[in-house]
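Methods: holo model generation. Sequences were used as deposited, without trimming of termini or removal of tags, and paired with ligand SMILES retrieved from the corresponding compound records. Each pair was processed once, and we did not select among multiple samples. The sequence and S-adenosylmethionine SMILES for this entry were:
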Amino acid sequence: MKRPEILLFSVLVLVGISACRNDNPPTDIPTMTREKPAPSAAAADRPAPRSGAGNFEALVADYESKDRVIWQKPGMVIAMLGDLKGKTIADIGAGTGYFTFRMVPLAEKVIGVDIDPRFIAFMDSIKVRLPVQYRDRFESRLAKPDNPMLAPAEADAVVIVNTYGYIENRIQYLQTLAKGLKPGGNLLIIDFKKNNLPIGPPDEYKVALGQVEGELAASGFEVSKVDEESLDYQYIILAKKK
Ligand SMILES: C[S@@+](CC[C@H](N)C(=O)[O-])C[C@H]1O[C@@H](n2cnc3c(N)ncnc32)[C@H](O)[C@@H]1O
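and the model returned the structure below.
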């Protein structure tokens, strides 16, 4: 993103925070707050996550932390999707739109998908402040925990950042998601590496890289790239719909 766009985006986020703030004081929370990962078929006795639960203002502050850009490297991550010109991208578990709004100037359309109406309202509050020429490129979409609510072959690419562990019955979810992706379309998944690193949730809250790879293979995706080096705290998986 160019410097004026970064500045514009920061202003939009600040305005969005004040538009959506509630009266609860912010609490101290670890970076990228989350509950325990959703159960896999093999661990169905684990508690299901309550996605987005907690103090909304604190979640927003966490997701939009100004230091995040240093370790999250959003520009590098987005570049892994290649040229987005003319493409429709779905950001599943978009939250505040950290990735969604960074992709808006680059793509034809970006759908910020979330199951939490508070994040949908937050993203919408930012949309109305986008420059006119970008406004139609963004759409928020309230989804269901088991369905991203994409139309058949609607997206050229899908990103799931820091959200994979929230999804229950992931193989079934990925099969549903694949229907919303064009043949050969890319799926980019980024999540936290294990090893009790200084950034990210405790290890028990994370989904191991190998497990994600296995679930992708079981749901009809072909893993085309695994990158454990570019981000200090997270792995990146690029997969293709077969
Ligand atoms: C930790 S946040 C990540 C937000 C954003 N991707 C980022 O990196 O800043 C996880 C988000 O996923 C959403 N979420 C949880 N389960 C979901 C599901 N099954 N489908 C779509 N969104 C989900 C939550 O409401 C929350 O906004």
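The first helix runs from residue 3 to 20.
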